[in-house]
Amino acid sequence: MEATIRCKITRHTHVFQPGNIVEVRRRILEKSENQPVSGYFVPDIGDGTPGIIPLDTAEPLADVPAPEETYYGKCVLTSVSNFWQNSADNQVISPNGTVEPEKVRVIHYPDCQQLVFHMPRYAWDAGTFRLTNTCSQEVIEEKPVRERLNGGTMILTNTLPYPPGFYTIEANWPDGWTHRIQFIKFTEGFPKAPFENAPGNFRRAIRNEEVHLLHEPEPEIVEGVTANGTPIPDTSFRRDDDREYTSPACSLRMVQDSNDHRLFDYTGREIPTGIDVEKFKKELMSRFFPTLEYTQDGRGGSIYYKEGDIKIEFGWEFGGFNTVVIIFIPEPKYWEAHTGTPLSRRDEILKFLCDQVIHDQARGCKAVMYDDAISIVR
Q1: pTM (2 decimals)?
Q2: Which of helix, strand or coil describes residue 353?
Q3: What pLDDT, in 10s, does the model give residues 60-98?
Q4: How many other C-beta atoms are found inside a 10 Å radius of the C-beta of residue 27?
Q5: Which helix (H) or strand (E) is 203 found in, with range?
Q6: Phi and psi of 240, rounded to 5°?
Q7: What is the CATH number of domain 75-206?
Q8: Most buried one in 110, 179, 225, 255, CB count within 10 A?
């Protein structure tokens, strides 16, 4: 193991903002021909590569904090890779498949953070799961992959027990093919805005969204729509003398046909609303009626329950024999922390989930519910 210390960042460096507490290697790396400044080694500068935190950007801390049960700092994914452990020159991808960077996610809940990924195929016969503190090289957890599976491919890792630091997850196969996931656990309150030129994964963490490594494109400029997606009213139909016209306070008359809604004031002048009626109808419906959205990644994926401002993700994967699919759900004691909804609504939401999944995807099947899963069976 490597000796480490804690440093408080005093000036923004790499992805570390002032005030952030960072674990670094204790031994100072001195300035040299290949190293422009003296500093502390860190195994990850925000993109999975190691680097240096310059001495003039960090203040060493002498105190050693007492261990805590939970640490609420955000986790940010930095790198996902697939490689052979025993053959660095072999560039052939294993038949076992790869874990794709955009398919690994960190999901932020009010009282929980889960790192979620799927092994590329049924993984009961896979090798070892290992979680390591990348800075100190301490192995935190090591066990057979099958003991970490939720179903046949999904691996969930609750990151709350881990203090701020640098971490690596590796899950391998008996032939040496290995999937590696790197992430940084930040001090509570970081990363935060403003953060100039923040990478996409950090922008998502700042917004409390799911963190993944999928490229985040720049906002698309669409004619007739503002930057936040609001339609710009069409005033091209107005006469020149209408440009500065403001309707007086009065009753409005609506004219409606099958495709349009139009408003007129008592003078007969049309009042532009700038409203996309179809979009408005859909948004109104979603406010009062729940819906489901489905995603798939190999043998599994996610089901999103949406109801107004509520959005709950449930993992799923294909079953075997008479079980068509298994849906993973929070146990009652974790329900409120994972979903942000009262426990009193659990039965109602899960009943809708079961009924709608069967209606959409598995006609003629039935649901069997357990504390932590739902089996859709023939």
Answers
A1: 0.66
A2: helix
A3: 998 888 988 889 899 999 999 999 987 665 678 888 999
A4: 12
A5: helix 200-206
A6: -55, -35
A7: 2.60.40.3080
A8: 179
